[in-house]
Design goal:
- By secondary structure, the protein is α/β, with parallel strands linked by helices.
- The protein folds into two domains: about 140 residues, P-loop containing nucleotide triphosphate hydrolases (Rossmann fold), CATH 3.40.50.300; about 70 residues, no CATH class.
- The chain is built from eleven helices and ten strands.
- A six-stranded mixed sheet has the order 6-7-8-3-9-10, with helices on both faces.
- The protein is globular.
- About 40% of the residues are buried.
- The structure holds adenosine-5'-triphosphate and magnesium ion (MG).
- The site of magnesium ion has 4 residues, from helix 2.
């Protein structure tokens, strides 16, 4: 990947979000152990690993919702380890949450508009972004419904719409496709690709849907017990039997081999 000229340009221009050797412990649980992760613009990086591997903790540390005990977070070469989430947002970082953070009493459309307004868009532009995103994320039919009435899967995609409404440079998605019917996964994959291809953003995608992760990601990093177990492109990760044993399970290994 180092020989991809476009990516090398991006790296030199400093348009990179980087966690460098971050560690974080909670009451004796070592959630992260010297994890280094780089996210460049115009790429989709998958972050996978079993439950409790440290994925959400890493997203929290990258977005300012938690601070590491050791290590640093850098944006375009600047140390942002102690910046608030709000300040990071103003510099183009957005995220989705594994658990709902929508305004339940506001309508679905208002939730997206509020996110756009918060990033500096005018009223008309906020409305345009909301309508566009709700359409692309198959949420238009719920535009006028209170966000609190959405199903779990629809609520996840509302979180994605809210994050994208800020037109981020980097967006970190924590299990955005959980609860999504299998038939709707291809449309969701297209949205994730468009964030990279049309908006030039860097996307970090956490998901347990391996088909989705393998299909859309340029690179994948695997966490296990808070440490990086493997890194590579989807083909390399698929071929890595250590990863398969730790995460995909023996049945997946047998299925792959058959
Ligand atoms: N605020 C917290 N207080 C105490 N322990 C925590 C806290 N946050 C995370 N942990 C612990 O840190 C470890 C990593 O948790 P994390 O939520 O990052 O895992 P994950 O990879 O996102 O898992 P999942 O796939 O279930 O979402 C787990 O053992 C978890 O119980
Ligand atoms: Mg998690």
């Amino acid at each position: 990947m180092a020989d991809d000229p476009q990516r090398e340009d991006t790296r030199r221009s400093g348009a990179t979000l980087r966690a460098a050797s971050v560690s974080r412990a909670f009451d004796g649980v070592q959630a992260l152990r010297e994890v280094t992760l780089e996210l460049h613009r115009k790429e989709i990086v998958g972050l996978i690993g079993p439950n409790g591997a440290g994925k959400s903790t890493l997203v929290n540390v990258l977005t300012g919702f938690d601070y590491p005990d050791a290590g640093t977070v850098e944006l375009a070469g600047r140390c942002i380890t102690r910046w608030s989430p709000h300040r990071r947002g103003r510099h183009g970082l957005a995220r989705t949450f594994q658990h709902s953070r929508s305004f339940r009493e506001l309508t679905v459309r208002e939730n997206v508009e509020v996110a756009a307004l918060g990033s500096g868009a005018g009223v008309r532009e906020a409305r345009r972004r909301a309508d566009d995103l709700l359409e692309r994320l198959s949420l238009t039919q719920y535009s006028s419904a209170p966000a609190g009435s959405l199903s779990h899967g629809d609520e996840r995609r509302l979180g994605v719409a809210r994050a994208l409404a800020t037109e981020p440079r980097f967006v970190l998605m924590d299990e955005p496709a959980a609860g999504l019917p299998e038939a709707e996964v291809p449309d969701f994959a297209a949205v994730v690709r468009s964030v990279r291809d049309e908006h030039g953003a860097g996307v970090l995608l956490i998901d347990h849907n391996m088909a989705l992760v393998m299909e859309v990601c340029d690179r994948i990093q695997v966490l296990d017990h808070g440490a990086t177990l493997a890194e590579g492109d989807p083909r390399e990760i698929r071929a890595n039997l250590d990863v398969a044993a730790a995460y995909l399970g023996d049945s997946a290994v047998h299925e792959d081999a058959s």
